Amino acid sequence: MTTKLTTVRSGALTTVQDAGRPGHAHLGVPRSGALDAPAMRLANRLLGNAPGAAVLETTLTGCALRPDQDVTAVVGGAPCPVTVDGRPAAWGAPVRVPAGSVLDVGAATAGVRSYVAVAGGIAAEPVLGSRSTDLLSGLGPEPLRDGEVVAVGIPARPVPPPVAAPWPGPPAELVLPVRPGPRADWFTPAALRTFTSATYRVSPHSNRIGLRTEGPPLERASAGELPSEGMVLGAVQVPPDGRPVLFLHDHPTTGGYPVVAVVPEPALAAAAQAAAGTPLRFTLA
Amino acid sequence: MTDDGRTAHAGALTARPAGRHALLVELPDAERTAAFHAEVLRRRAAGTLPPVEEIVPGARTVLLDGVPDPEALARRVTDWEVPPVADDTGDVVEIPVRYDGPDLADVATLWGVGPDEVGALHGSHTYRVAFCGFAPGFGYLTGLPPRLHVPRRSTPRTRVPAGAVALAGPYSAVYPRATPGGWQLIGTMPDPRPLWDPARERAALLAPGTRVRFVTAGGATAAGTARGTATGSTATVGTGPEAGA
Questions:
Q1: In DSSP terms, which residues pair with A255 in a beta bridge?
Q2: Given A128, A227, A263, which is nearest B58 (Cβ)?
Q3: Which residue of chain B is at minimal alpha-carbon distance from A263?
Q4: Do B135 and A28 touch (CB under 8 A)?
Q5: Nearest residue of A to residue B54 by CA position?
Q6: CB B195 within 8 A of CB B206
Q7: Which pLDDT score is estimated for B230?
Q8: pLDDT in tens, A163-184
């Protein structure tokens, strides 16, 4: 019998995420997938799941779930209080959640996105090979709603013995390495110097599509419109207001604003955990 | 920011770095972009292309993403001989259209014809999907002659229905789902469901490189017979576009 989780509290935004659906960008399909991919993989590893098994990604305020059978879960990513039926439980390590009790994933004490992995993985219906919720184009399961029931897969192997897990802390300051982007030549030399020397702040308008920034605008060397072109994950696109936007996993596959720089994928996990107001610098890699 | 921003030029082609694992190849126009895209696909099918995770055409670019060594690939693509795309290559898809869009009269005025002539004129050309974007399965179709290019609406609509057949700049498109949009709406595809079906082997009906004919719904083919029958496979919407390579 399939184990089910009832959503007692869905939180601000809780979505199903896995390794995403790469390979379909030419059809206009975003990659999607967990923004803090290392956190997803670590949580899965602690449970004996495949690294890309589907998990729940919360946003700032956590969520609460009630299984109808005993399950083992790991809450990782952004640090937060974890309770089972109100009693404190481990963060970042396997937690036994008895049938009918409530696993509460509290508000993040630092960072933005906590991950809830369950032994067996979340068993939402895959779309183009992925269970990820894609907020830009609406593919995959809808964000969780209160009362919604999600299925859990059958674990392929038992939960391994506990190990000390290296969870990186959310960044107090976000320093993102960049390489010049395909349209760096659309910006003035002064703008390029500003870009790699100024301190920006993470904007509260950031989401799974992009990390928006507040700070000095970048001045273009050339006016005119850029015909739509393919966009990579980690592209730093500069819209007409001049404030760089770092493309995260739900970014559009093509875009018409120049990409000044590209942040390598391994640096994006920290970007996914940088709360609004976090100081941000781009440094030439 | 110049130490790593090497770009390679070869004749009409510019290869621009796009991070550690991607290359953006820029071409001078849509025709040569389509030809380069076709060449990339040919080489991948022949097994002579290094591993590439994503091949994403744009208006004048082809993005090669997930490439182990983009600099080496940049040096190789500059040596490629790229033949032009023949008119008769690529699968053909027919899209039935009722020419009843709310902007039909405006487009007719811009084209200098009567509203009842827009459909015949639009349907008299064969189009090709240049690239996708905006939404899954939303194809940007080239093939409209420059004299028929129209601007976007000055005020975008908050909701364009699924199946809307639309024009903007050099492009035609069919909205696979309801979204906001600023294109001029000239008609309706009565059943837009085939445009995007992720459960199907080919999720997008209008994938890059596909040729498209618009036919008046319920009537005869609007595409002029004088244009000849293509040698590629023709897929009629609803019967599945799986035929062909």
A1: A229
A2: A227
A3: B19
A4: yes
A5: A23
A6: yes
A7: 36
A8: 888 899 888 999 999 999 999 9
How far A20 CA lies from chain B's nearest CA (Å)? Answer: 13
Q: Which residues in chain A have Cβ-Cβ distances shorter than 8 Å to B141?
A: none
Inter-chain touch B198–A139, beta carbons under 8 Å:
yes
Tell me the percentage of chain A whose pLDDT exceeds 90: 94
- CA distance to partner chain A, nearest, from residue B62 (Å): 7
pLDDT for B8: 57
At A101-157, the pLDDT tens digits run 999 999 999 999 999 999 999 999 999 999 999 999 999 999 999 999 999 999 989
pTM above 0.90, yes or no: yes
- Does the distance separating the beta carbons of A128 and B24 come in below 8 Å? no
Does residue B209 sit at the A interface (CB-CB below 8 Å)? no
Nearest-CB residue to B19 (from A195, A234, A255): A234
Task: Among B22, B55, B56, select the one facing A254 at the smallest CB separation.
Answer: B56
- What is the average per-residue pLDDT within A273-284? 97
* pLDDT at res. A223: 84
**Residue A275, amino acid:** A
What are the DSSP calls for chain B, one per residue? --TT---EEETTEEEEE-STTEEEEE-SSHHHHHHHHHHHHHHHHHT-SPP-SEEEE-SSEEEEES-S-HHHHHHHHTT---PPPPTT-S-EEEEEEB---TTHHHHHHHHTS-GGGHHHHHTTS-EEEEEE-SSTT-EEEE---GGG-BPPPSS-EEEE-TTEEEEEBTEEEE-SS-EEE-SEEEEE-S--GGGB-TTSSS-BSS-TT-EEEEEETTSS--S-GGG---SS-EEETTS-S----
Residue B198 near chain A (CB below 8 Å): yes
Residues B17/B23/B29/B32 CA torsion (nearest 10 deg): 140
Is B63–A231 a contact, with Cβ atoms under 8 angstroms apart?
yes
Token representation of residue B218: 């319920």
Residue ranges of chain B with pLDDT lower than 70? Answer: 1-11, 219-245
B78 is written with which tokens?
């500059």
Contact B19 A195 (CB under 8 A): no
pLDDT in tens, B134-192: 999 999 999 999 999 999 999 999 999 999 999 999 999 999 999 999 999 999 999 99
Q: Which of A249, A253, A260, A284 to mutate to test the interface with B (most CBs of B within 10 A)?
A: A253
Burial of B84 (0-12, 13-18, 19+ CB in 10 A): exposed
Q: Over the stretch A27-65, which tens digit does the pLDDT of each residue have?
A: 999 999 999 999 999 999 999 999 999 999 999 999 999
